[in-house]
Design goal:
Blueprint (H helix, E strand, L loop, with lengths): L5 E18 L5 E21 L3 E4 L9 H9 L6 E7 L10 H16 L6 H9 L5 H4 L4 E6 L3 E4 L8 E7 L5 H11 L10 H4 L8 H7 L1 H14 L5 E2 L6 E4 L3 H11 L8 E7 L14
Parallel strand pairs: 3-4
Antiparallel strand pairs: 1-2, 2-4, 2-5, 5-6, 7-9, 7-10, 8-9
Length: 289
Amino acid sequence: MESWPISFKSFAKINLNLFVGPPVTGGLHALSSLFQTISLHDTVTISPAQTTTVTIDDPGIPTVNTVSRAVAALAPRLRQGWSISVAKRIPLGAGLGGGSSNAATVLLALNACENLGLPPSELRVLGAGIGSDVPFFTQGGHARVSGTGDRVAATPPVVPSPYIVLITSDTHCSTQAVYRAYDALGHYDCLDTLSPTQQDSIGPNSLQKAVMQQYPDLNALCTRIHTVIKPRSVWLTGSGSTLYVPCTSAADQDAICAAIAPHLDRNHHQLIPVECVWDTVSQFNCIAP
């Protein structure tokens, strides 16, 4: 018998690179991107209940959200109610995939807790109906994501070490606004001709120009950090607003944090040292069938 409630880590991700093609069916864009889960995480806690309820400790998240949609996707298969709560630490509108990660965590947790036996392929299909990043989070680790986010293939890591520095801000980037700005630029990546070197590169993000045009404060922050750490580079993850710096070691991570910290406004920016997480799904194996 399980001891309830049970808590699961819902990990954030960064895009180590992001190439974006033109819109396809449904208005989504084709992409090719290396995704990497990182140690920054929310916490999803569940326990049996008479009826299913979802509680998220951030009042800025609407009642209908990725978690409620994950529950709805599994509702026909569920045999009982569940109390589901989410403690948020991953910033919203930051390009870190917090909402998508929460949805995938709920899919995986309920699949395990109810012993539904849904295979990874079916969980990815359910996830794709919730959000384009959800299929990746049902697998986690390091993967190349393509299509409209529905194709996920594990690949050998390309990062030089697991240590990364995140720089978050109170700028919340609208994914829809960023993609509209990207469309307005009129230049799309030809995903079929990407070389292996491009596919395994760290940093390039085709949305970065559109993001920086839309959010001048974020552009100023990126420029300031680059000036401090050059010739090193600072990169944007996803559609923003989080910036990140890959590090060569734990000592290098400490040095980067020390160099950047004096140039940030503590009321608006946060430095978060993180590590890559290679295994995000074994935590669900502890549930007894």
